[in-house]
Amino acid sequence: MTIKLGVPSKGRLMEKTFDWFGARGVQLSRTGSDREYAGAVEGVSGIELVLLSAGEIPRELAAGRIHLGVTGIDLIREKLSGWEQRVEELAPLGFGHADLIIAVPDFWVDVRKLDDLDAAAATFRARNNFRLRIATKYHRLIREYLRQNGVADYQLVDSQGATEGTVKNETAEAVADITSTGETLRANHLRLLDDGPALKSQATLLRSKSARMSKQERADLTTLMKQLALT
Amino acid sequence: MNTVSAKATALRARFEAAGAVPVETSILQPADTLLDLYGEDIRGRAYITSDALRGEQMLRPDFTVPVVQMHMDGGADPARYTYAGTVFRRQEEDESRPNEYTQVGYEVFDRVEPIAADAEVFALISDALGDAPVRASTGDIGILMAAVCALGTSEARKAALMRHIWRPRKFRALLDRFSKPAVARDILKTSDPFAKAGPEIGLRRKSDVLARLDALRKDIETKPISAREIELIEALLNVRAMMPHALEQLRDLAVDLPAISSAVERLGQRMEALKARGIDVVKLEFETSYGRSLMEYYDGFVFGFYAETRPDLPPIATGGRYDALTQRLGQGAEIPAVGGVIRPDLLLELEGAV
Q1: Mean pLDDT of A17-23
Q2: Which of A48, B198, B252, B347 is deepest in the core (most CB within 10 A)?
Q3: Are the Cβ atoms of A143 and B43 closer than 8 angstroms?
Q4: Are residues A160 and A180 in the same domain?
Q5: Residue B231 distance to chain A (closest CA, Å)
Q6: How many CA atoms, within 13 angstroms, populate the side-chain half-sphere of residue A27?
Q7: Interchain pair B160, A109: CB under 8 A
């Protein structure tokens, strides 16, 4: 059997991951046609490349179906509860930088910080008879962050895409999303809170704590770690 | 019948014998009521499911809310209820904690003698726990509330403190901020606060922003809460002793903080009522802060029974007074209410360990 390495199946995240491994003497590549999710590994033995959606990699690592995986730390923390018990962070890869942020309409000149958001939520709820809505797909992370910072009287509404448009469409009053540049926010007349991001994320190489390994696989993993200068 | 349900049935029979009417509630509860009461945090603690017709439904995380709703829909006055059944709690931190377990409860709706009702519920639960090695902690959030209401500061600041009374860390941060002179933000000094701002979008309107700026302006005028008052609140929060000693300390504090006198006297009366029911109050702990991070609906007497020999276990029984909850669910009506629940599974575990 082989050590399974899960890598995002498309786009820049895949290319950058290939580059990162390539720079360390491990060549990853897609094989077959563009549409076929099959891959090859050269430079080390006993390693199999599994191409997956970045969003599925946390679950596969937690279940032990892959031994290693590359994905954003934001996805790990959102999707895996007790993530420290289930995966180990081996190395930040230095790309795929993204911040999980909370943004409010720019014209809310009274709201600069989370404390202001809390105060705004209190009066909003009193006036509208429902809680101030924050659109996001990062429910667990944002709920925990707001709880720790004492924000009440809000509700999270699910938004799987075009989150920045929800305020103008009046389906939410504020948004919580991943942003790398902030341009989309500005274009939608939104502004970051001054407290800084709820989470700073980047692509990370992770190891599953539950994947079983034979003696041979353990040896192959050790060789790979040496090759990647991670021991 | 397994042992947990046999235990649950026996406990409920005990509560029936004390005069309670047995009731049942649906397992699926409309999520909006519970979300409105508890806020977003409940999503981290309860299971939510949905269908296209009824929308979001929650697997009951407790019985109190549906029992209150049922009572407010036309229950007798006064009334006593008991129930036994499964509640469901998401466990996202600790896999060893069960996500479904049995609760047996006793709830009293009585507007005539609330203090006697507090003692009745506590004593009944204490008796039902029998010889299990437990120690009880009690508190009364009403004392802190009375102190906050009487602070020499603006209504807005008091309202902010009251709103966060169940979030100790945020409450502390607010108290710190209100004890220092407020700093005027630059935005309050500009003639047109919207000069550099984007267009008005979303349901929170420009008028809401202006109203908040006004509130911030007024807040700058507000004098800091005096060091003396902060000290008294801190002293109040630090009261933790066996009930008779705690009462003494609180009475001393009430000399400087007369606003808490009636809440403190209620504690005194409750202590007498507990004694009359055979509770050894000398061994009963009282802590002003107790229960502050529990469910938000408790607004008076609160209690919990803990396994002395098993500090790893969650409380074996908990309860408290929730007058404000009946008001919020009563659509205009209200009735003082107090109740408590026992977890028969934990009780069995503890009895087995004796």
Answers
A1: 96
A2: B347
A3: yes
A4: yes
A5: 23
A6: 6
A7: no
Q: In sequence order, what are the beta bridge partners of A31? A: A38
Distance, in Å, from the CA atom of A163 to the CA atom of B309, rounded to the nearest integer, reads 51
Please indicate if any CB of chain A lies within 8 Å of the CB of B330: no
Our count of domains for chain A comes to 2
ipTM for this model: 0.87
What is the DSSP-derived secondary structure letter of residue B353? H
In chain B, where the domains are located:
1-109, 114-146+239-342, 147-197+204-230
* Token representation of residue B173: 């941060």
pLDDT band (50, 70, 90) for residue A180 = low
Directed axis angle between helix B344-353 and helix B3-17, to 10°? 110
Interface mutation target, options B183, B203, B213, chain A, most CBs of A under 10 Å = B203
Judge if A135 and A147 occupy the same domain.
yes
Interface of B with A in 81-110 (CB under 8 A): 92-93, 95
Q: Lowest-pLDDT range, A18-27, B28-37, B126-135? A: B28-37
Residues A170 and A104 in one domain: yes
Does the pLDDT value for residue B54 go beyond 90? no
Supply the range of the domain harboring residue A7.
3-97+202-227
Residues A35 and A54 in one domain: yes
Tokens of B112: 């005539």
Our measurement of the distance from residue B50's CA atom to the centroid of its chain's CA atoms, rounded to an integer in Å, reads: 28
Domain co-membership, A22 together with A87: yes
User: Residues A11, A82: one domain?
Assistant: yes
- The SS3 of residue B274 is helix
User: How far is the alpha carbon of B203 from chain A, nearest alpha carbon, in Å?
Assistant: 6
B178-219 pLDDT tens trace: 999 988 899 998 999 999 999 999 999 999 999 999 999 999
Q: In chain B, what residues touch A116 (CB-CB under 8 Å)?
A: 212
Closest CA of chain A from B162, distance in Å: 12
Is residue A170 within 8 A of residue A210, CB to CB? The reply is no
* Distance set, CA A109 to CA B136, B195, B222, B293 (Å): 49, 10, 21, 32
Which CATH superfamily hosts domain B114-146+239-342? Bira Bifunctional Protein; Domain 2 (3.30.930.10)
Name the CATH superfamily for B1-109: Bira Bifunctional Protein; Domain 2 (3.30.930.10)
CATH number of the CATH domain containing A37: 3.40.190.10
For chain B, the straight-line distance linking the first and the last C-alpha, in angstroms and rounded, comes to 23
